[in-house]
Amino acid sequence: MSAPGVLSFTQQGWEQVLAKVKRAVVYLDAACAESLHWCCGSTRLVEAVGSPGCPLREFEPKAVGGTAEQPKAVFVLSCLLKGRTVEALRDIVCRSHFRYCVVVTALSHAVHLTANHVPAAAAAELEGQQPVFEQLEEKLCEWMGSMNYTAEVLHVPLLLSPVAPYLALTPAFASLFPLLPQDVHLLNSARPDKRRLGSLGEVDSTALTPELMLQMRCLVSGLSSLCEHLGVREECFAVGALSRVIAADLANYAPAKNRRKTATGRASVVFVDRTLDLTGAVGHHGDNLVEKIISVLPQLPGHTNDVMVNMVELTALQTQEESQNVVAPGCLAQANDSAARALWEALLNTKHKEAVMEVRRHLVEAASRENLPIKMSMGRVTPGQLTSYVQLFKNNLKALRNHCGILQLGLATVQTLKHPQTAKWDRFLAFERLLLQSIGESGMSVVLNQLLPMCKPSAQRTSDDYGPEELLVLLIYIYSVCGEFTVDKDLGEAQEKVKKALVQVFCEEVELSPLLQKITGKVCSNIRKKWNLRFKTE
Question: Smallest Cα–Cα separation from 356: which of 413, 308, 273?
Fold first, then answer.
């Protein structure tokens, strides 16, 4: 094992899981599958299973159970062993022929005590005991049909997806979002009048909803496990209301207090509310190839931070129709390919132009190792040039196998450079600069009036125009940059015009994207009916 770090923390966790999966049917939920994807890859798990008759399966209530030839199951879960999760476990086990079940949870027993409303004083008395896990073990044996069968429930902190040795993501908490000023009203609705909150600055852990408090405690549990692996005594800093609450909860977390007594190292942990960087999230100022790849290529199903790379052009199949359901999509994570990981880390750390040149260099070196007839060319790197290098590997199974990771990153680069959204990225950047200049010189109303002509219904839009999602991105950018401002008559009129234009854009869409359906809560036909009814009434 390497020196303590983010990557070794996750690897150590997965080694504990891999030690349990031999000849087992393995069920994973999405967050744990993503952690495996970035840490060591599904191939490593399949190798550890060691039996072609014991596949990997998605954990869900309707998941296929185990046959008589599959007596062992391992469930790897990022969520609490409570409620629907336990119900799904029961359904899968009851319709299977398992005689040995292992349940791995990414959340500590202390968090499960919190979820079961065990008071802190009572939880302290249970130190070293795991009654919640033991009760589930008994239930598993009952569901398997015999108390003589074997059941294990254990905690392994599979919190992180290590994208790089110095960068890790938490897919299980992708939906955790900081509190906004308007959330104070919702929090006050559950509080007596004498204890009502005046602002976000007054929010503490006791003011949070039970669901948010539990989610926050789950995050704290994982972070405490990471600090334990690193052997550090953390000093926490926070910027933002929810970050302050999380930092305080980590400081007061009972297992963390015990850990800090023996820790030899020190670390500073900075929590920052995501709302404080909305401008960076929706802006197009980053000159990074990876940012563009993730923005324009389709998302890998079930993942929050990886994309699908079309690999068809490396096969003998000639058309997209022929390749359907035959060629699996490529991706960015190359856990078991050291050369590809080196290229990936270079892409993360360099600017766009340097990253594209690095892709060319790796493709040239890979082709040279396979003695492929590569023609060197200097100067500016073009998508056509990279494509010609990739095509050298076509139908050469040995070369494809040896350099699959490099080729996936190479094709991701080519497909991003050719994607029409990449050209739109530059237009976004130009318009954002214009908006910044207008905000400084003229104010918010002038900026909104500049945006108004761009709000075009689908029938009037060309490929160069902005769609509904892109208009929302621009609005978020504008309001994030402006911060607080005073609404006067001109601004009020400009806002109303933009609102009406956006409603018309939404209503005339042939089909709303999943994101827009989530935002509006309606499908397109329902919006159109309400819009028509409104005009008839008026």
Answer: 413
Taking residue 106's Cβ as centre, other Cβ atoms within 10 Å add up to: 26
Among 91-105, 404-418, 463-477, which stretch is predicted with the lowest mean pLDDT?
463-477
Confidence of residue 247 (pLDDT cuts 50, 70, 90): very high
Distance separating alpha carbons of residues 8 and 14, to the nearest angstrom: 10
Q: What is the mean pLDDT of residues 458-487?
A: 83
The answer to whether the beta carbons of residues 27 and 76 sit under 8 Å apart is yes
Each residue's pLDDT tens digit, 320-339:
555 455 678 899 998 788 99
CA 203 to chain CA centroid, nearest Å: 27
Place of tokens 């976000």: 200
* pLDDT value of position 522: 57
Neighbours of 270 (CB within 10 A): 11
Higher pLDDT, 275 or 399: 399
Beta carbons of 48 and 22 less than 8 angstroms apart: yes
Exposed, middle or buried by CB within 10 Å (0-12, 13-18, 19+), for 354? middle
DSSP string, 211-223: HHHHHHHHHHHHH
Nearest-10 Cα torsion for 487, 491, 495, 498: -160
SS3 content of the chain, % helix, strand, coil (to 5): 55, 10, 35
The answer to whether the beta carbons of residues 139 and 145 sit under 8 Å apart is: no
State which H helix or E strand residue 266 sits in: strand 265-272
- Are 34 and 305 in contact by the 8 Å Cβ rule? The answer is yes
How many other CB atoms sit within 10 Å of the CB of residue 332? 26
Domain architecture of the chain: domains with CATH: 6-161 (3.40.50), 175-280 (no CATH), 289-418 (no CATH), 425-537 (no CATH)
Q: If you average pLDDT over residues 278-284, what whole number do you get?
A: 72
Query: How many C-beta atoms surround the C-beta of residue 496 within 10 A?
Result: 11
Q: Facing residues of 75 across strands?
A: 27, 103
The secondary structure element, H or E, covering residue 518 is helix 514-520
pLDDT digits (tens, 9 = 90+) for 496-512: 999 999 888 888 888 88
Residue 108: name the closest of 127, 89, 92, 125 by CA: 127
Q: Residue 417's closest CA among 281, 291, 292, 283? A: 292
pTM: 0.85
Average pLDDT estimate for 425-451? 82
Rounded distance, CA 411 to CA 189, Å?
52
Q: What pLDDT band is residue 316 in, cutting at 50, 70 and 90?
A: low
